[in-house]
Amino acid sequence: MSLVRASTAPRERSIASPATIIAGLGGLYVAQSVIGGVVFTGLPAVLRQNGASLNDIAFILLTVLPWSFKFVWSPAVERYRSPRSGRRRSREVVAIVGAFAVAMIVACALIGPGALLPLTVAMMAASFASATLDIACDGHAVESLAERNRGWGNAAQVGGAYMGAAIGGGLFLVLIDHLGWQPATLVMAGVLVALGLPFLLTPDRQRAAREDRPPQSIMAALRRPEMRSGLLLVAVYVLGAKWASILISPFLIDSGLSLTALGTLNGIGITVSGLAGAFGGGWLVRRFGAFPIMSGALALTALGLAGFALAAVAGVKAPAALGALMLLGSLSFSLGVVALYSELMGRASLDQAGVDFTLFQSMDAIVSVVGWWLVSAVGDRLGFAVCFGAAAILGLAALVALPFLARRESARAREAQQGA
Questions:
Q1: CB within 8 A of 112, min separation 6: which ones?
Q2: This model's pTM is above 0.85
Q3: Matching CATH number, 9-213, of 3.40.190.10, 1.20.1250.20, 3.30.750.24, 1.20.1330.10
Q4: Which residue did the predictor score with more confidence, 286 or 103?
């Protein structure tokens, strides 16, 4: 499929091979998710073990805000990282912001889990640094990877998220159990340094971009039709793929799964199935294109949600069957996200790649949070069967809308080619 670009600037050949670029980016994506795993999975468990109330734990989760609103400062990051003249500064940004993120994790180790307010401030700063790293990392990926390699780049992104979450939300807790808070947190800081080194040590002498380009800005992104249609695509896809995900763990607990069984599913099963979907998606997108894979993933998601709805109606308590549905959802989700983000990379302008891709991710985050809040608000009243059934219908509606969005983008691509 032909992809629209706002910039016609020629892409200089990077000294690094595509495999080296993807490996370096993958390390950064894992590192970002390690921070997320520590903040959103590991830390709440530690706080609860130390006697924190649920309100205290909810207070810590305010650290998610930088990820939802990182588009606000993305133009400033991109203006520095990718100036009009001279070389790109991707590695400089990663080195400076990454060092700050590591320093904040070290600060968390020194503060300890008993001092909630300073710990929250340090974690908020680490989350801000991680979100800022993601802006630079995504911009560098769009600029550096040719279209045929974007699927592998997105596989590294999604697979890195699963691996990082397993380290930050799983290994971190094991280390705390055996070593204590401070040594375990310092180990996480060391892991972040090790994960960032491959990117920092990879040579990159590409020039930033054409010198006559306009300044990077959010309004410049929103003026381009392929960006607006991309934001619509994200919203439609998220509606079909993510809204019911918050209900699955509570439903499995109500169906009789133990915390140990659910923890094993989340820790091992979800990680393995997510990685399989991510790297399988990278290969499939390269061979078949993004939209067919998105359609297949949405179909699998709707099928899994319909299965949960039927299980809720029939009162099914079979752990193996319900666990299989959960793993199917993880596989289809990671498969679809790789395809979605590969498509979105093609809609990001080389003039402001980090700004454009950050807008897409923020749309994903905002629609997800709104959906999770709505589902949580009405779930008790409507019941699992209705909620899962409605989510399956939303998935099918998104599946029906995808061909229209694909044709719309193809028509714009043809018009751009004719205009050129």
A1: 119, 181, 182
A2: no
A3: 1.20.1250.20
A4: 103
